Amino acid sequence: MAPTPGGFRHSAQLQDILRESQGRGLLGPTPVGQHVVHAQAMAAAFSGAPSSFLDLGCGGGVPGLVLAELWPASRGVLLDAAARRCRFLTTATAALHLDDRVRVVHARAEDAARDPALREMFPAVVARSFGPPAVTAECATGFLAVGGRLVVSTPPGAPGLWPAEALAELGLEREGPPPTTRSVVVFRKAASLTERYPRRAGVPSRRPLWCA
To answer: What does residue 3 show for φ and ψ, rounded to 5 degrees?
Structure first.
């Protein structure tokens, strides 16, 4: 096991896979240990390991692969619209022996959120660098079960980035992150989503519910 600056000991194989992801241009150049610490901060925003989670726009495998190791009893879905990323992550989950409980889904979030097997089914949804706040919230809420939590990785910003009235339209309300976790924003799913959301693929980006 390889230690990270945050103390979580992830497998050496995961470290190698994340380095390969960087080499393929799927993951940013930040040192792998820092990527893992960032994923760990997202996990800390939950009160414990959820029964299942969805990584919205899983990219090069962070936080999804890290969370799958950190939460060994949880089932996960890694969702991405890019076939190249999904092919890599399918291979990665098999190499890490996670493919019995972690599934890679190649789809647009707006479309996948209409799938009855995925719609409002997850107590935990995470999003890292998925898109602007309005796009992330609209796409993520389609997967989040009522009472569940959405954790978004975000740099410090003005409270207006997440207006309460617009969030309520999506069934979301903002919560405060744990005191030691400053790099995430946390939301609770307070009400079930209407059939209007998410809108058709591409519409949340072209016509966001609010501007940040």
So the answer is: -75, 155
